[in-house]
């Protein structure tokens, strides 16, 4: 399947010129997302209370900034240069200290082994397709310290709606646009299996009910073994 990960940059270029957007999301969606999705995840057993956290796929940095404000030592990485630029500006505006780097989560050559306590999927794993998903998980494993924690927050369990607005292909469980696979929305059990195969022990896993009638969210806390 064809992929175009760096193509996400075009979305940031468009959104940066629209004052409604804070980054990937609109300002109004962002606070709700933090309260309904990330804050409850932080309260779950196994989520570290502090430490060096790397957000994989940080985009314009809004989630990284929230975690820094919550006391974590945060670095964000994203493949989209416009996203990283925007993230740097957002952190400066919020007066928060976060490092942002441009990089590909499939290798993260700029990040040494065993350098983080927490690898947090900033809803990037569902952008990663096919065999690349194992590379994502292996990279997260590599940059984590022994016993480090992987946090996954990813779309799952697509319900095929009558009007298939996001071009979901049930055979591959991917959304396809112009022949390019853009999202993997697989079965939550299959995603858990991928995480286990990449040598993580699952400490906590929950499927949150769908918020938009089509896609649920799988939240996982897993330990590097
Ligand atoms: C759904 S957006 C979420 C962005 C951000 N975490 C947020 O919540 O606002 C997914 C992000 O993953 C990034 N991404 C996709 N493929 C990537 C790759 N191979 N390496 C690094 N980042 C990638 C995209 O550029 C995009 O910013």
Note down, in words, how this protein is organized:
With 225 residues, the chain is α/β, with parallel strands linked by helices. The protein contains 6 helices and 10 strands; from the N terminus they run ααβαβαββαββββαββ. It has a 7-stranded mixed beta sheet, with helices on both faces. A 3-stranded antiparallel beta sheet has the order 6-7-8, with no helix packed on it. Strand 4, helix 5 and strand 5 form a beta-alpha-beta unit. Helix 1 crosses helix 4. It is globular, with a radius of gyration of 16 Å. S-adenosylmethionine binds next to helix 3.
Can I get a quick summary?
With 225 residues, this protein is α/β, with parallel strands linked by helices.
Labels describing this entry:
225 residues; alpha/beta; Rossmann fold; seven-stranded mixed β-sheet; 10 strands; 31% helix; binds S-adenosylmethionine
Q: How many domains would you count in the coordinates?
A: 1
Largest sheet: 7 strands, mixed
| Count of runs of 4 or more consecutive helical residues | 6
Query: Bound small molecules, which ones?
Result: S-adenosylmethionine
Helicity range of the residues?
25-40%
* Fraction in beta strands: 25-35%
Strand order of the largest sheet: 3-2-1-4-5-10-9
Give the number of DSSP strands: 10
Q: Using the 3D structure, state the CATH architecture.
A: 3-Layer(aba) Sandwich
Counting helices, strands and paired strands, the structural category is alpha/beta
Examine the coordinates and then state which fold CATH places here, giving the name of the CATH topology.
Rossmann fold
Mean pLDDT across all amino acids: 95
Enumerate the spans where pLDDT stays under 50 for 5 or more consecutive residues: none
**Which homologous superfamily in CATH is the superfamily?**
Vaccinia Virus protein VP39
């Amino acid at each position: 399947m064809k992929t175009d990960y760096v193509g996400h940059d075009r979305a940031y270029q468009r959104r940066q010129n629209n004052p409604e957007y804070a980054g990937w999301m609109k300002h109004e969606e962002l606070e709700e997302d933090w309260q309904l999705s990330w804050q409850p995840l932080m309260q779950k057993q196994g989520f570290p209370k502090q430490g060096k956290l790397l957000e994989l796929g940080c985009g314009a940095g809004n989630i990284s900034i929230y975690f820094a404000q919550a006391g974590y030592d945060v670095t964000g990485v994203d493949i989209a240069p416009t996203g990283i630029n925007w993230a740097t500006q957002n952190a400066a505006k919020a007066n928060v200290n976060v490092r942002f780097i441009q990089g590909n989560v499939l290798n993260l050559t700029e990040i040494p082994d065993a350098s983080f306590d927490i690898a947090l999927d900033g809803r990037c794993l569902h952008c990663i397709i096919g065999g690349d998903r194992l590379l994502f998980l292996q990279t997260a494993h590599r940059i984590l310290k022994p016993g480090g924690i992987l946090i996954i927050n990813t779309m799952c369990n697509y319900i095929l709606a009558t009007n298939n607005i996001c071009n979901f292909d049930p055979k591959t469980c991917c959304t396809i646009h112009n022949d390019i696979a853009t999202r993997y929305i697989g079965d939550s059990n299959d995603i858990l299996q991928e995480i286990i195969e990449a040598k993580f022990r699952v400490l906590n896993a929950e499927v949150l009910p769908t918020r938009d009638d089509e896609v649920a969210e799988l939240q996982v806390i897993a330990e590097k073994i």
